[in-house]
Specification:
Length: 150
């Protein structure tokens, strides 16, 4: 499948997102490290724009996830590696400084803080995401969070 997509769109326009430690809908793998190290080795040959890894979430850990350390995935994948999964400013900085990732994605924090970069730069307080408003309804929760400076 990856080869077909890369052939049509070009590798520099293709990214893949994986959740190696995920437990959503009771998914599990008895040896995820072996599988994902192999998979990432295979993906290396395509020269993708990026690989996006959803790191183990607290909910995955509570549900018995077989957690794969980012260091293992970083060693297995040669291209641009983006991670996400409950990161805050400090943890994101550590992941990048320690070479575990090239970038960190912030989903919920960006929804609640459209000025997230400015807030990080100023070490300013963050708005809390309102999960009740996720996935439907109207603009509430997507366009009404207060900016740092109005």
């Amino acid at each position: 499948m990856t080869e077909a997509v890369v052939t049509v769109w070009g590798a520099d326009r293709v990214g893949i997102r994986l959740s190696p430690s995920g437990t959503f809908n009771d998914m599990t793998d008895s040896d995820p490290e072996t599988f994902f190290v192999y998979l990432l080795g295979q993906l290396n040959r395509f020269g993708l724009a990026y690989l996006h890894i959803v790191d183990a979430l607290e909910s995955d850990i509570r549900h018995g996830a077989n957690v794969i350390n980012l260091e293992v995935l970083r060693k297995a994948y040669n291209g641009t590696l983006i991670v996400c999964g409950g990161y805050d400013r400090a943890r994101a900085g550590e992941a990048i400084a320690e070479g575990k990732a090239d970038a960190v994605a912030f989903g919920q924090l960006y929804i609640a803080n459209p000025d997230l970069v400015e807030r990080f730069n100023l070490n300013a307080p963050l708005n809390e995401p309102d999960a009740v408003t996720f996935y439907g309804g109207n603009e509430k929760g997507y366009t009404d969070y207060p900016a740092l400076v109005d």
